[in-house]
């Protein structure tokens, strides 16, 4: 921690701050120039800087080290590779997760699964437990949705990612999913984070809609601190003053987080922008900026979708997106899984 004293702070005030820092367990190194700067080392990660900020004569206080230890690169410089039942996330391949916002029927999820697999997606998404703004909106098919999702994925050689909203759903979701998704609205639901940290499956952690990068990484820390190293981060847009799009997709978060953390970083342009015609351009940009993967909503009949139709791509638009990002991936030295023939 670095403490900058007011240029006019008296020696007595500086000494009082040093005494306080010593009381809190810091070793203090003092530099005198125009004013005084104190370098304080040796305290635990959770120290609240405001204890020092409020002292007389203190102009500003900065943290010298990050408040997380497992999520940061300091102790873990190499990129984390998450093995999703044989699909490696966080390596050179840009891994694509695609599917409808919600599982609605056997026909809908089967048609989507075979189309996204044929276009080169690796992981099938689809909500069975949906966090909806309105309690009157479709809440998902629950366990039936999980069964349909897993079976559609299995028929098409795909893995499954799906959201879990509360601790008591974890067991049932974990029976059908390869990755547990924590939605934006639950990014700071700490008991849920701890429970998924103990569940033994990779966790897909979406950024909260008003969360700073540091808060997001602290949420990852909750999962990692439970002994689960397999966390995938996902930028999905944040709330800003802008109303032209549903959220503001913060693509700058990708290189920012890649520098701070070793965890794979995905981008979800669908929730990030909320409008179908802007999903593909932002997917291209996400790959260009270094995303390790994408999550994209797609539906056989978006106007009839029970949730998020306006941001869901038609299946042929999804295939087109895959072709476009293939070219971007090549340009930035990454690969995308080849499209293949799969059973219907
Ligand atoms: C979703 O992926 O279905 C979802 C609800 O996204 P978010 O949590 O980012 O809003
Ligand atoms: Mn959605």
Keywords summarizing the entry:
344 residues; binds phosphoenolpyruvate; alpha/beta; 15 strands; Alpha-Beta Plaits; four-stranded antiparallel sheet; 2 domains; eight-stranded parallel beta barrel
Describe the overall structure.
By secondary structure, the chain is of the alpha/beta class. The chain has 2 domains: 2-62, 2-Layer Sandwich (Alpha-Beta Plaits), CATH 3.30.70.1140; 82-336, Aldolase class I (TIM Barrel), CATH 3.20.20. 32% of the residues lie in helices and 19% in strands. It has helices at 11-23, 50-53, 106-119, 143-155, 170-176, 190-197, 213-224, 253-260, 269-273, 279-288, 315-331, and strands at residues 2-5, 27-32, 36-41, 58-62, 82-84, 87-89, 93-99, 123-125, 159-163, 179-182, 203-206, 231-235, 265-267, 293-297, 335-336. The strands form 3 sheets. Strands 7-8-9-10-11-12-13-14 form an 8-stranded parallel β-barrel, surrounded by 7 helices. Strands 2-3-1-4 form a 4-stranded antiparallel β-sheet. Helix 3 links the parallel strand 7 and strand 8 (123-125). Bound molecules: phosphoenolpyruvate (PEP) and manganese (II) ion. Residues 101, 271, 297, 307-308 line the site of manganese (II) ion.
């Amino acid at each position: 921690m670095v403490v900058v004293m007011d240029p006019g702070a008296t020696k007595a005030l500086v000494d009082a701050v040093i005494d306080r820092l010593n009381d809190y367990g810091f070793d203090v190194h003092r530099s005198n120039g125009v004013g005084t700067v104190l370098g304080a080392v040796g305290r635990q990660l959770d120290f609240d800087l405001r204890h020092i900020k409020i002292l007389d004569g203190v102009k500003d206080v900065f943290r010298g080290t990050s408040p997380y230890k497992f999520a940061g690169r300091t102790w873990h410089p190499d990129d984390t590779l998450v093995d999703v039942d044989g699909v490696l996330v966080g390596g050179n391949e840009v891994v694509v997760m695609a599917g409808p916002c919600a599982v609605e029927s056997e026909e809908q999820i089967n048609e989507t699964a075979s189309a996204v697999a044929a276009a080169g997606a690796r992981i099938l998404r689809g909500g069975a437990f949906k966090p909806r703004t309105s309690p009157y909106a479709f809440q998902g098919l629950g366990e039936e949705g999980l069964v349909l999702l897993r079976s559609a994925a299995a028929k098409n050689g795909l893995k499954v990612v799906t959201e879990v909203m509360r601790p008591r759903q974890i067991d049932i979701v974990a029976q059908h999913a390869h990755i547990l998704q924590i939605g934006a609205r639950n990014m700071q639901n700490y008991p849920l984070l701890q429970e998924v940290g103990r569940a033994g499956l990779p966790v897909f952690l979406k950024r909260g809609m008003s969360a700073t990068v540091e808060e997001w990484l602290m949420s990852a820390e909750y999962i990692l601190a439970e002994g689960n190293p397999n966390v995938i981060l996902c930028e999905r847009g944040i709330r800003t003053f802008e109303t032209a799009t549903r959220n503001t997709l913060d693509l700058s978060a990708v290189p920012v987080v890649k520098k701070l953390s070793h965890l794979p970083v995905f981008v979800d342009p669908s929730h990030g922008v909320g409008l179908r015609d802007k999903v593909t351009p932002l997917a291209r940009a996400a790959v260009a900026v270094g995303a390790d993967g994408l999550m994209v909503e797609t539906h056989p009949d978006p106007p009839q979708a029970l949730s998020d139709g306006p941001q869901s791509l038609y299946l042929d638009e999804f295939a087109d997106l895959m072709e476009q990002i293939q070219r971007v991936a090549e340009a930035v030295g990454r690969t995308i899984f080849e499209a293949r023939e799969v059973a219907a």
